[in-house]
Amino acid sequence: MKNVEPGWAGPGSCPPVKEAVDATVELIKRLRNLPFPIPMASVGADGRTGLFWSDEKLYADIEILEDGKVGYLIEVKGRPQVDNEEDMPDVGLPEGVAWALASAYLNNRK
Description:
Elements: H1 18-32, E1 40-43, E2 49-54, E3 58-64, E4 69-76, E5 82-87, H2 95-105
Antiparallel strand pairs: 1-2, 2-3, 3-4, 4-5
C-alpha cells in the first residue's frame, strides 16, 4: 500500500494517504489475536484503504475514511445488511464490525 504511485489504477487515481494506511495496518493488528480470519487489505482508486471479507457466512467491506471514521457495508448470512459509519475506537474494533465478525464466525460456524 505504501508504494502505490499516482495513476496506479489509471488517470486520476490516487495513492493512499499515510494515515489511512496506518489505520488499516492498526485494524489488522487488532484482529491478529482474535478468532476471526484476517481480511484482504485493499486500496481504492480514490486513495482510500480498507479491509474485505467474503465467504459463505459474511460479506464485509470496511473503508477507512478521511475524518477518522470507519465506513462499512456488512452482510451476515440470514441477517439484514448494515451500511454505517462510526468512529475508529482507540482500542478494539468498531462496534458494528465486531458484531458482524462475532455473528458470522462465533455463532454460525460449525
